[in-house]
From TrEMBL:
UniProt-listed SUPFAM superfamilies: Ankyrin repeat, RING/U-box
Stated name of the protein: RING-type E3 ubiquitin transferase
Catalysed reactions listed for this entry: S-ubiquitinyl-[E2 ubiquitin-conjugating enzyme]-L-cysteine + [acceptor protein]-L-lysine = [E2 ubiquitin-conjugating enzyme]-L-cysteine + N(6)-ubiquitinyl-[acceptor protein]-L-lysine
Every RING-type domain range: 313-363
């Protein structure tokens, strides 16, 4: 009897999980919120076969509010599908920078590689030329200091490892710069070069990767194959060699000829006499790291409205000011400051080093943000569980007792911006008592739900009708139990209805 109940309830959980997947894919925030309020463990549901979770679907479609809702429900932020991809990878693949920003603030792991070719979220962002996603992925690795560009430039001249964010190339030694150069994404190539990506990194022969250009190729070889002249010029200006030969004995010029990129003949033939001076990438953003640290500590989605604070943010006029720009000391809320840093695509400022963003009030170059004295850290507590999805605990025994006790577990300490969402220790919530009729999906009409404003005769008729309907339900349930008992006895004695 209990086995049949568990099987039936597992189908119910599967149906609710599919509803949550549909809500996450379609961007239905209210539906997703209602389902997670009903059962927070539904966030761990994954589809059959491809094993995409609701977090994968919402990230791939760019629904950042549902992504935040799922993360606050305790889902593992680094869940993988059958290809080994995380939600961060799928958001970077399709260029949803708001989702990437949310995942980075929740400390998603940017070093995870997929199962197919060892590519990370940075590789996917560079492959598709999403410069805003690249900037957000590397926010923790680019310090908010004024002389960052000079430090990276000096390291590149001394042939040191300038790529502090290098987590290892993909299969075949392919780096994010290789992918951006091959596909002709000029802005992504420019940003990666300004952030210290190596122009001398070569691919390797691993025996599995199909490399039509050849092992030992530099990003310039890949740019020559892609055929974008601007990418080639950027790499040459950053010191890429024109005479490096790969395993096939090809120089970048020979690669361009083999792929019929005739317009690159002049660019790859010889290095220009007057080396052009490159301006900083418009997607370089120095104050992003300082702001990300503040947002993780103190939150970034405060609901304080303008009427509740004396000095609201001058940008949105809805939230109280939590951060100030270092230098001009103009105050903003964390949400608006994050939006300013994430969407900025110009490096021009009245006063400030390369990579600073212009203050929207005085055009002063902002290098970093500081936390205001009135800004307090957020509470380190999460009200939902991160445990895996189990069967429902509904059973006939619980229905006979008249109530259903559903224990949940709550971690003693949990950071809502943590990356693993693992519970340290569990303590039980107070038991939640549910009606058995609600669990079985039957309507439950009780006398206490009848409005008191109606007259006495009508109220008595409603009470009698509800009592007769409850009597019929109890009679049908007892008959069903007797039928199941007789069925179990016939199976146990080996009798046959035939």
């Amino acid at each position: 009897m209990r086995f049949l109940s568990l099987v039936g309830n597992s189908f119910g959980c599967s149906a609710s999980g599919e509803r949550l997947v549909s809500a996450a894919r379609d961007g239905d925030l209210q539906e997703a919120k209602a389902l997670l309020d009903y059962n927070p463990r539904l966030a761990r549901y994954s589809t059959f076969g491809v094993r995409n979770s609701p977090l994968h679907y919402s990230a791939a479609q760019g629904h950042h509010e549902i992504v935040s809702l799922l993360l606050e429900s305790g889902v593992d932020i680094n869940l993988r599908n059958y290809r080994g991809q995380t939600a961060l990878m799928q958001a970077c693949q399709y260029g949803h920078w708001e989702v990437v920003q949310t995942l980075i603030l929740f400390k998603a792991n940017i070093h995870r590689a997929d199962y197919l070719n060892g590519g990370t979220a940075l590789h996917l962002a560079a492959l598709n030329g999403h410069s805003r996603c690249i900037r957000l992925l590397l926010a923790d690795h680019i310090p908010s200091i004024p002389n960052l560009c000079n430090i990276l430039k000096n390291r590149s001249r001394s042939d040191e490892t300038v790529s502090e964010f290098d987590e290892g190339p993909a299969d075949g030694g392919v780096t994010a710069l290789h992918m951006a150069a091959l596909n002709g994404h000029v802005e992504a190539v420019h940003l990666l070069l300004d952030l210290g990506a190596s122009v001398s990194q070569i691919t390797v022969e691993d025996g599995t990767t199909i490399d039509l250009i050849g092992a030992g190729s530099t990003p310039l070889h890949y740019a020559a194959c892609g055929g974008n002249a601007q990418c080639c010029q950027l790499l040459i200006a950053k010191g890429s060699s024109l005479t490096t030969e790969n395993a096939n004995g090809w120089t970048p010029l020979m690669v361009a000829r083999s792929w019929h990129r005739d317009w690159l003949e002049e660019v790859l033939s010889q290095r220009p006499v007057d080396q052009p001076r490159l301006s900083p990438s418009p997607f370089l953003c120095l104050p992003l790291r300082s702001l990300v640290d503040i947002a993780r500590e103190c939150g970034w989605r405060s609901s304080d409205m303008a009427s509740a604070c004396l000095d609201p943010c001058v940008v949105c006029l809805e939230r109280k000011c939590t951060v100030a720009a270092e230098g001009c000391f103009h105050e903003f809320c964390t949400h608006c400051a994050l939006y300013l840093c994430s969407t900025n695509s110009t490096s021009t400022a009245s006063h400030g080093p390369p990579g600073s963003i212009a203050c929207p009030l005085c055009r002063h170059g902002i290098v970093s943000f500081i936390k205001l004295a009135s800004t307090r850290p957020i509470s380190k507590e999460l009200g939902r569980t991160s445990l895996s999805l189990p069967f429902c605990t509904c059973s006939t025994e619980a229905q006979e007792s008249g109530s259903l006790e559903t224990p949940f577990c709550k971690p003693d300490f949990h950071s809502p911006l943590g990356s693993s969402f693992r519970s340290l220790s569990c303590q039980g919530f107070p038991s939640v008592k549910l009606s058995p009729g609600l669990c079985m999906g039957a309507p439950d009409t009780s006398p206490c739900l009848v409005p008191r404003s109606i007259d006495g005769s009508l109220r008595n008729r409603l009470v009698r009708c509800s009592s007769r309907s409850s009597l019929r339900r109890s009679t049908s349930q007892s008959e069903g139990k007797r039928w199941l008992c007789s069925f179990n006895q016939s199976v146990g004695t080996g009798s046959s209805c035939l």
